[in-house]
């Protein structure tokens, strides 16, 4: 009942298809497995679901390497299964968006097979091909020094036509040449219109900052030339031409009269709030954006795997979160997604708080409060609502399936990564590998936690499913799940405060400092209608958390008429001395 568009007040739920729910006992999550879970998602308070890529793919990058936009990876089901899911979601009052992965295709896509077949192929120019160079010793060298996000050169030599092709990600993910207007039309038809025509309500747009490259391919300034793993620095992001391509893409969405479609871009690591205004501000083409700065919090400029010490600093967390919250200020608006987890990062209770037996539940609740009372479009990643944790530290490297992880580990083991020792690499993998967010959803206490009836699943189920699972937590008022349900109701009830409102995240000085994580201070804006709520003072620490934070919030906001000094919610992620 807010005056805001649906995608601003919606609570989004990110489903990672292979790990959500297996309906046919092959150990792999699938589309038909999602449909029976829709009532659960409704009961949680979700309005929108986002599906990770389920399209035809050889699965080198878990479906972010697409070989056919218009068909479904067979283990996940068929296009008619997807149609059934779209219809079922709408019947349950849920919006549904898909992942749009169009910076690159799989190397097995028919477009690339044609493009690489001959320099004279009609589709040669649909990808970036270059002859490369010869150095003083007469050795062949790539066209420039760009590095892949996943390590090593971003150029792959192709014997057949004796040229290099560009791949910002895996060599199995050749970059599309967006300068080619035929290619753009093919992308708009196959990857966008095909699914909009089936009723999908929009897309989460993968790597939205990098479609345009400087096709002169100049060398970049490389921070650590001998490291195979350059991250953080993007040589090619946010070029002016990129915004032109997104205008064209927006026009496709705009051609669907009467459909309230949403475009939510995934920004790359280096995107700043200033640049984000270009994407989502009043002249931008996107509605909302996922920033990466909290996801990349532990990273150094050198590499994802060379971590800051300490890897988690609360003040930095606050600065980053607060800066992006500032984009929801009146007049400076560039609407932003607010989220702590996805399929590319470890679990938030493990990264930002304390996932030990005694601290996990309270930690998950603290982080839920932070999220539910922040501005922006809120996304919950599957399992976050029940307090799922990263993979146990004692699990062996064999349990890690992500090629980003596996190829890094192999590079270190074979001495091809600059300087890292194998134990240092393992320590980083156990903290920040993307696999931590990909263990199967934990539904109940049956074998494999109800994720699959198969003997084993594609990824090992976390043994803590005995007490971390939907069935156990449903109806248990002290559980993380029931807490999320309540805090989401509060968020919606006070949407003006929490969504359209503006919380200043700030740190405190003085004696609270050692116990304090996060404060909210709500300034009463002139003429704001939300009750007479001025500023609520709720000073609480960890011990209070163990009781019932939502009762405190309910008491404060339930009245709605209380003259309240200042709303300072302390979210301490370290056991405060009671
Ligand atoms: O990720 C974009 C991206 O560059 C980072 O999230 C990166 O994948 C990660 O931080 C590496 O450590 C998107 C998808 O979310 C990711 O799963 C894909 O691998 C990537 O694009 C390529 O499609
Ligand atoms: Ca299955």
From TrEMBL:
* One Gene Ontology biological process: maltose catabolic process
- Whether Glycoprotein counts among this entry's keywords is yes
Note the CDD domains from the entry.
AmyAc_SI_OligoGlu_DGase
Looking at the record, the residues that make up the Glycosyl hydrolase family 13 catalytic domain are: 14-438
Q: Which domain of life is it from?
A: Eukaryota
Q: Which UniProt keywords apply?
A: Glycoprotein, Maltose metabolism
Q: Name one GO molecular function term.
A: oligo-1,6-glucosidase activity
Q: Locate the coiled-coil region(s) and give their ranges.
A: none
Name the protein family.
Belongs to the glycosyl hydrolase 13 family.
Q: What is this protein called?
A: Glycosyl hydrolase family 13 catalytic domain-containing protein
Tell me the organism's taxonomic lineage: Eukaryota, Fungi, Dikarya, Ascomycota, Pezizomycotina
């Amino acid at each position: 009942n807010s005056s805001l568009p649906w995608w601003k007040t919606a609570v989004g739920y990110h489903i990672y298809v292979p790990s959500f729910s297996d309906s046919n006992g092959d150990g792999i999550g699938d589309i038909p497995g999602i449909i029976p879970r829709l009532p659960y998602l409704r009961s949680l308070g979700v309005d929108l679901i986002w599906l990770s890529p389920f399209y035809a793919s050889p699965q080198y990058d878990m479906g972010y390497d697409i070989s056919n936009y218009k068909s479904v990876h067979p283990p996940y089901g068929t296009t008619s299964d997807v149609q059934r899911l779209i219809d079922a979601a709408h019947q349950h009052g849920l919006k549904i968006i898909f992942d749009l992965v169009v910076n690159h295709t799989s190397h097995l896509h028919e477009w690339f097979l044609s493009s690489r077949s001959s320099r004279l192929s009609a589709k040669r120019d649909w990808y970036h091909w270059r002859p490369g160079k010869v150095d003083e010793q007469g050795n062949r060298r790539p066209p420039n020094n760009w590095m892949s996000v996943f390590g090593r050169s971003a150029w792959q030599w192709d014997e057949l036509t004796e040229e290099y092709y560009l791949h910002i990600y895996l060599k199995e993910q050749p970059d599309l040449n967006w300068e080619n207007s035929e290619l753009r039309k093919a992308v708009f038809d196959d990857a966008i219109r095909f699914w909009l025509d089936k009723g999908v309500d929009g897309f989460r747009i993968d790597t939205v900052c990098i479609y345009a490259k400087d096709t002169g391919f100049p060398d970049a300034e490389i921070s650590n030339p001998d490291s195979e793993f350059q991250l953080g620095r993007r040589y090619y992001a946010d070029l002016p031409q990129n915004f032109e391509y997104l205008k064209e893409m927006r026009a496709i969405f705009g051609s669907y009269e009467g459909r309230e479609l949403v475009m939510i871009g995934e920004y790359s690591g280096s995107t700043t709030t200033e640049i984000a205004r270009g994407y989502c501000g009043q002249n931008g083409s996107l509605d909302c954006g996922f920033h990466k700065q909290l996801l990349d919090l532990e990273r150094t400029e050198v590499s994802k795997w060379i971590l800051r010490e300490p890897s988690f600093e609360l003040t930095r967390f606050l600065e980053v979160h607060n800066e992006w919250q500032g984009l929801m200020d009146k007049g400076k608006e560039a609407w932003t997604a607010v989220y702590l987890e996805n399929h590319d990062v470890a679990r938030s209770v493990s990264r930002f708080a304390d996932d030990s037996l005694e601290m996990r539940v309270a930690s998950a609740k603290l982080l839920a409060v932070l999220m539910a009372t922040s501005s922006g479009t809120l996304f919950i990643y599957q399992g976050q609502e029940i307090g799922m944790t990263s993979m146990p530290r004692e699990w062996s490297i064999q349990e890690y399936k992500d090629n980003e992880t596996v190829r890094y580990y192999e590079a270190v083991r074979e001495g091809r990564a600059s300087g890292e020792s194998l134990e240092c690499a393992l320590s980083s993998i156990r903290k920040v590998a993307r696999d931590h967010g990909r263990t199967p959803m934990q539904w109940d206490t049956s074998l494999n936690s109800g994720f699959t009836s198969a003997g084993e699943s594609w990824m090992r189920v976390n043994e803590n499913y005995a007490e971390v699972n939907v069935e156990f937590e449903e109806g248990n008022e002290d559980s993380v799940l029931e807490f999320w349900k309540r805090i989401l109701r509060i968020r919606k009830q006070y949407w003006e405060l929490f969504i359209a409102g503006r919380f200043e995240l700030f740190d405190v000085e003085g004696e609270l400092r050692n116990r304090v994580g996060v404060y909210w201070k709500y300034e009463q804006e002139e003429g704001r209608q939300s009750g007479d709520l001025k500023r609520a003072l709720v000073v609480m620490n960890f011990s209070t958390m163990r009781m019932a934070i939502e009762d405190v919030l309910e008491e404060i906001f339930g009245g709605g008429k209380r003259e309240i000094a200042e709303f300072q919610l302390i979210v301490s992620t370290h056991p405060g001395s009671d």
